[in-house]
Every structure is written in structure tokens, then in C-alpha cells.
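Dissemination and training. As part of the outreach component of the grant, students in the summer workshop were shown how a complex can be specified as a set of sequence lines and then modelled as a single object. The example used during the hands-on session is reproduced here so that future cohorts can follow it. Participants entered these lines:
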Amino acid sequence: MISADTKPCIASKARLRYDRIANRYMLLFPEKGLVLNPTAAEIAKLCTGEHSVAAIVSQLASRYGKDATEIESEVMKFLTALSERGLLKEAD
Amino acid sequence: MSENRPYTLVAELTYRCPLRCSYCSNPVDWAKRKNELDTETWKRVFREAEELGVVGLNLTGGEPILRKDLEELIAEARKLDLYTNLITSGIPLERARLAQFRAAGLDNVQVSVQDVDAKESDRIAGLRSFEKKLEVCAWVKELGMPLTLNVVLHRDNLDHVAEIVALAERVKADRLELANTQYLGWALINRRALLPTREQLDAARKVAGEARKRLLGKMEVLFVTPDYYTDYPKSCMDGWGRRFIVVSPDGLVLPCHAAHTLPGLKFDNVRDQSLASIWAGSSGFNAFRGEAWMPEPCRSCDKRGVDFGGCRCQAYHLTGDAAATDPTCTLAPSHGLIETARGEALGGEAPPLRYRSVRIASAR
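and obtained this result:
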């Protein structure tokens, strides 16, 4: 389960890549790719295993001047979706 | 953005392969096409593909590890930031070479096994290979790479899906592809021996579905239903010339790996033209893009933007007309061909398997 203390990391089978044709980020993994919206891309970039979910939320909230609870639900939704596809692991 | 943008390059590096699987998707006349592209041409193809928008690369064949320049090709793909997947039987591979692939930047390794035990797996492959494949799977994980286990399903192994899932867990696969045979090429020749019954298929799908739920987040379980048992055709290659570029070992640029088996279509070669000019201008690519080519019932069907009329190769090889509605569609005038084939799967002794060979076989 993902909690505020979890330090998420993109799984080794997935790779974040900038798509310069369409000016957006994609998360690539075997046989597939997810097109990321700008917020999802910012979240994914912070999934390095160094930052906790709480830290990611506060960083994005201050960057976008948005309410932390609003950002938090977006972050949790995205990370849960990644996790269910096996695209996320927790840093030790 | 254009409607047609390639995301994936399927590089068929060679048609050579030590295995002789009776459902091989290579063209049945593969042995006639020996003139393989050289290293520099493949590297140019990768660069030109990336410029067109390709982000993923499948290195396949035949058996791609038979190419002595595979390390160099992987390194070039990495330089271009392509997500690179090696699709291999693992024969013949040494651990040290696999480590070189990893060092060169390979992202994922997909190993195929034919069944859950050596006897059956080797019978289907036409070569003693099962134990070696499992060893290769172990190396992939030891070297810290993601592993996809692929099993092509048919009548003789469809009842083993639970055991296949257990095998995938044992080798710590990150992804399991349970891909039912696509009845083209060698598989069409062997259809009577390979096509399962609906009961088999329903049972296997249930087992796979339970495994998918149980392993959520741990191992991705993919079950590809054979289109002989679906109501509507599959969206073959996500539509002709929309998302995929296949380059054959001898340099033909194709919308799918069997497109050059369709008569009357002209496909171009990367030796003569850039990939960009072929993608945009090849008459073969443009033949079945869009909807203008579609016959009824496709043309007015509300699913035409979902399945794009199905598989052109299947249409041709079953009906003789590449522009026909895919006969697997229950709305197709030729759907009776599929019902007949399913009927054959139910009864009687199946003929012996015909292995992939250099002899040019005829599907008819």
C-alpha cells in the first residue's frame, strides 16, 4: 500500500521518455507506453526513490500554487495506477 | 498530430532460427529471403524511425541473437533512447553475452517457452531447448533485467495455463504473455492440429483471469484470445500503417510481419529510400489506411474505428481477397469459414504437425 511515507520509485522495467514529436512525456514498458499529462509527468520525475509521497505532494503543491489535498488525491491516484501495473516499486 | 504516427519499430533482424515451431509467424517462404541488412543500415533505420516518432524497439526474428552485431545494435538503440525489447528463444545464448546486452542498454528480455515441461515444449519447438530456456530466464533476472515469459497457446498446451502461470512465478517473470496462436503462416498450415475448442479456451481464460487478479502489481498476466473465438476481429497492428513499422531481415518496410504475402501490393526497401518517405508514400502502406478501402459491413460499422476492419492478411489467406472484411468477424459474409474451422477442431484425428522448414510450404 502506498502511504505518505512511501518513497516511490519507477520500476526497472519502465522508463520515462520525452516524446519530442508531441511535446509530452511517456512512460514506456514492455509492449506499451502510457502518455502522461503534465502533472503525471512531474510526479513520475520525482519517483526516484529519494522523495516520500508527502514530499512529492508538498513540492508540487508549492510549484503549482495548488491546495495540497487536491494534489495529494491526484498523486495517490496516479501512483496506485502505476503500482497495479507493476510499474512502481518502493525504495528500501 | 497526424493520425498515422509510428510508436514501435519491429526489427526482424533475421529469419534464421534454430527452432522449428509449427506456428512460426515468419513467412512460409522465409528461406528464399537471405539477403540480410548490414549493421550500418539497421542503425540508420533505428535513427530514421526515432525521427518519425518511434519510442519502442522490438528486436526479433527469427532468432535475433544469431546476429553477431546485436550488441552494437542495442547500443545504438540506447543512444536514441528507444525502449528496447529483445524477443528471443534464448538459443544459443551465453550468460556473458547477455551481460553485454545489458551493458549496452537493453531494457527488457522476452523469452518464449512452448509448454511447461521439456518433453512437450521440445516437441513443439522441434528442438531440445526447454532446459536451456529456463537457464536463460534465470540469467535475465540475475543480471537485474525485467523478464517477459511468452507462451504461444494452442490445443496441446491450453489446458496447462495454471502450470504455465506457476512456471512464470518460479522464474520470477515480470510479465507473462499467454498469446493464443494467430492462424497465419505456419500456424495456418497446422490449423487443424493447433486450433483449440471453445471449452478449452473458456477454461484457460478463467485461470488466466484469476492469476491476473492474484498477481496484480507483481506480475502482469496478459491473455490474448484467438480471434477465431471472438465476435469481432482484433485491431490488427492497431490499424494498418498507423502505429507500427515492421522491417523484414532483407529491408522491406511493412505494416505487419506478413504484409508482403499479400499479392498486388508494393512494398519498399530501406536500401533504396528513407523510412520517412516510405512511411508517407509507400503504396503498400497507403492501400489499407483510412476507411475508403473498406467494404460493407465494415464501412458503415460503428466499430470500424476500433478494429479497423481486422487483419488484412487473414482476410486474404482465408478468402483470397485482402480487402474483404476479416472473416473472424461474425458480421463478415465469409464468417462460415471460421465456423467450419472451429467444427474441425472438435472432431477427428488431427494431422501430424508440419514443422517450419526451408521447404516452401503451401497453405492451401
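The interface with chain B takes residues 11-13, 15, 17, 19, 21-22, 26, 28-31, 33, 83-86 of chain A (CB under 8 Å). Students were then asked to discuss how this feature might be tested experimentally.
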